[in-house]
């Protein structure tokens, strides 16, 4: 039966964003590759910072064909690792982002290619023997930005047939998703640890997650930090006007929720986030899922109930016509009501793929116009006061 690789890739990507443990994530991906493409075995070389090495972490496939986890460790100068870490230097030998053993063998037969480049010939020879030692016919790198997080090492197909182009493309696309998911999984591990150990470091990790969100959406760089700044300023003004003591727990939850309010966009394709034009109904539906995805992602982390509610409901409307649950009025969590106003103000005053930024004066008029329908009147009032004081920039 023919495999629908696009469908498999989408399914894998959906599942990956919900996995917070790197080793669980890798097992899931290798299982997908072995079963869907029917290869004899698959393994991963995963970078361990403390040892500055790439280590065989998890393998899947036929008994006897697999390498034991932890059995092999490669330093950054090992041939395969050096090739992928400095891929620009070998671009002419780079096959669509992957090393394919048959391609390496073919190149080495073309001696004329290396008359003026004996070092590259030596490297390819070393790569050939290293891939054979892994019993691998395809090696696929996993990058986060320019960092090599790991390498997928894939054995032969059970049928002994050559890999098709669409299968190689599937591996490469999957590796890109794996890298992002691995990065996020590592961050989530850190996030849980820091909640338990050190609140200051927890906030630093949260900021790293927020930066990862901004990096995915090219048109909203800085959006997260601005929404956080606006949200906290609005909350402080409301607290001051009420002559009440500030609730440290509430402000902490607001701070974290505003930094992570768009974390669910990790699960939205970049082609939709950065689309240069209006969204279709289906694309808009995908975007609207981000608040629920965000709540699901953070669900397993202890002591974040208030944060999760703020993230889940920051697109609800005061009149009950928002999403995801159509809450209205006082039923909307207070953290979410504040983020809604701050988020909308920044969205209006920022360039989007399909329009230029509105002026701040225009945005304030819009907030006032939608007070009592889309937004909570008290929060709009605070935002307008801050703007008139010059404190909402």
Automatic annotation (TrEMBL):
List residues of the HD-GYP domain.
Answer: 198-393
Recorded hits in PANTHER family, A to Z, give: CYCLIC DI-GMP PHOSPHODIESTERASE PA4108 (PTHR43155:SF2), CYCLIC DI-GMP PHOSPHODIESTERASE PA4108-RELATED (PTHR43155)
Q: Per its UniProt entry, which superkingdom is the organism in?
A: Bacteria
List the lineage, top down. Answer: Bacteria, Pseudomonadati, Candidatus Omnitrophota, Candidatus Velamenicoccus
**Which SUPFAM superfamilies does this one have?**
GAF domain-like, HD-domain/PDEase-like
- Segments forming a coiled coil: none
The record, for InterPro entries, names:
GAF, GAF-like_dom_sf, HD/PDEase_dom, HD_GYP_dom
Alphabetical list of Pfam families matching this protein:
GAF_2, HD_5
- Stated name of the protein: HD-GYP domain-containing protein
Organism this protein belongs to: Velamenicoccus archaeovorus
Q: Which PROSITE patterns match?
A: HD_GYP (PS51832)
